[in-house]
Structures are given as structure tokens and as C-alpha cells.
Amino acid sequence: MDIAVAIVLLVLVAFVIIVLVRSVRIVPQARAGVVERLGKYQRTLNPGLTILIPFVDRLLPLLDLREQVVSFPPQPVITEDNLVVSIDTVVYFQVTDARAATYEIANYIQAVEQLTTTTLRNVVGGLNLEEALTSRDQINGQLRGVLDEATGRWGIRVSRVELKAIDPPHSIQDSMEKQMRAERDRRAAILTAEGTKQSAILTAEGQRQSSILKAEGDAKAAILRADGEAQAIQKVFDAIHKGNPDNKLLAYQYLQTLPKIAEGSSNKLWIIPSEVGEALKGIGNALGGAVSGQASDGLFSPDADGRAPAAPAAGAVGTEAVAPSAGPTPPARPPS
Predict the structure, then answer these.
(1) Is residue 176 within 8 Å of 168, Cβ to Cβ?
(2) In whole angstroms, how far apart are CA 323 and each of 72, 151, 182, 298, 320?
(3) Alpha-carbon dihedral angle through residues 165, 166, 172, 175, given to the nearest 10 degrees
(4) Which pairing describes strands 48-51 and 57-59: parallel, antiparallel, or unpaired?
(5) Cα–Cα distance for residue pair 294/300, rounded to 1 Å
(6) For residue 139, what are the contacts with CB-CB under 8 A and spacing of at least 6?
(7) I need a surface site. Which of 60, 93, 132, 261 has the fewest CB within 10 A?
(8) In degrees, to the nearest 5, what angle opens at C-alpha 154 toward C-alphas 148 and 155?
(9) What pLDDT does residue 215 have?
């Protein structure tokens, strides 16, 4: 009897625990649950503590209300120029209506994947390969618009669609690499030519400026040199006129300048100017005046009036001069 009572009590306790477990539910944050009462939609549970009627209400699996990221496998797509490219897509979506996501679509993730594939083929099919590679923003915008419109009745909001990779065929990749390499070589050659051109222009400009500055410096130096020589000549001229030189000094200076004409190892012929005779005559007159009143051999002795005697005639060198007699010259005797 006691054992039967104990079994009944254990059954009752177990039943109460089961009822409590099925009646009390806790919904976490950012989750949503759909409650069916006798197989029919009754309400959507929000985060928090909820009481259900056991054996009457049934709670379906909770739905995640956070934004989800799904990466779909590569899909072959044919472009407008009949090239098959493989495109990877990433879709960002969020469940906004738990009831619609439960009853309007059986598997919303698979539905988003298939819709993305078909929409991607329609969009990329109207573009060539170059446009498909360079128009990712345009493709993303078109995909997002189509997906958001189609998934709105499913209680899903598509926030972003991104093309993760676009892989053309290997042959096309090789051709594109060759084309890009040729383009880079062309740009490098253009930049090198531009640099060489600029360098040549700058070098020529520098040489021109250098030549101009050098010519200006030479001209200024020549002007200064000419001015210096002119000032030197003017000073010498002023000094000569201030000293008031006579003909004797000038003749002596002229004779001192004559040896400078013969200077130099390449001088083979010395041409004496015609003014040398006049200079010698001036020096002779100077020397004759210097020995005036002194005893001499009669060549440079002055006359009674102080003038130097004339030079002996040709053929009379070495003979003495005979003074004329005071009386008349006797007539010559006729020959016998």
C-alpha cells in the first residue's frame, strides 16, 4: 500500500514538472518565437518570460532577428560577349517578421540563394566582361533592389549584396595580364620619355642661362679691363704732361723701348722703325751739349758759337781737319 502511494506521488510530481516546463518559456534577446494553438498560429513571442498552455500551445523553433551573412558558392554566369565567369556572392539579410518567415516560405535561406543566382545571371548577362569587372557597384545595387523587393513578403530585408570574386577563364586571365603588362610598359615608356624630355629641357635651359651669364661676365670684364687701361693711359699721359719732358728724355725712352720689340724666341727678323734716325740724332745732340767746353778729338767739339761741328764727309774718316789760313790763297802754278 505504501509503495503504491509513493508511485502515485512520484507520477504526480513528474506530471507537475512536465506541465511547468511546457508552460513556462524564456525567449532570449534578439530572438522571436511563433506559438501555435491546436495547430493554428496564435501569437509571436517577444524576448522575455512567457506562459503557455501545456498540451495546447506549441512553440516553434526560435528565429534569429539579427542581421545574418550568407556566402553562396561560385555560380557560372555567361556575359554578353559569351564568356563564362565564376562569381561568388555574399548576401546580408535580416528577419523582420517571424510569422511571414515561418509561414510564407519554407526555407528562406535557400530561397535567397536561388533568387540571388537567377538575378545575378540576368544582370551580368547584359554586360560584357570588362563592364562586369568594373561595374561591381552597379551590379550590387541591382541585385539588392531585386532581392529586397522579392523577399519583402517573406519577412526578410536584404541590406547588402556584395560580389566577393569574379573569376574569368584562365585563357582570358592570361590575355588580360598580357594586356595590362603591355599597358604598364607603355605608361613606363611614356613616363621615361617625359622625364628625358624634361631633363633635356632643363639641361638646355641651364646651359643657355650659363652661356648668357658667362657672356655678360666676359662683357663686364672686358668693359672693366678697357676702363682700367684707359685710366692707366690717362694717368700716364697726365704724368708725362705734368713732368713737361723735353726731346732728349723722349728720345732716350724711345731707344729703351726698342729692345722689347726683339723679345721672343720666334723673332727671326727685326725691323727698325724709321724714327730711329731721329732718335739717334736727338741723343747725339744731347751728348754733344753735355761735353760742351771740354777737350775732345774734334769730332764733337763745339765751334766758337757753341754749335757742334758737322760730321766729316765720306772718305775723310781718320783725317784731321785743316784750319783755313788768314791770307788769300795763292794761285795754282801751271804745270811745266
Answers:
(1) yes
(2) 153, 161, 121, 12, 9
(3) -60
(4) unpaired
(5) 10
(6) 120, 123, 124, 127, 132, 163
(7) 261
(8) 80
(9) 92
- The model's pLDDT over 117-167, given as tens digits with 9 standing for 90+, comes to 888 888 888 888 888 888 888 888 888 888 888 888 899 999 888 888 888
Res 197: pLDDT: 92
Q: With 70 as the cut, is the pLDDT of residue 210 above it? A: yes
Q: Which residue has the cell 607603355?
A: 186
Q: How far apart are CA 97 and CA 48, in angstroms?
A: 18
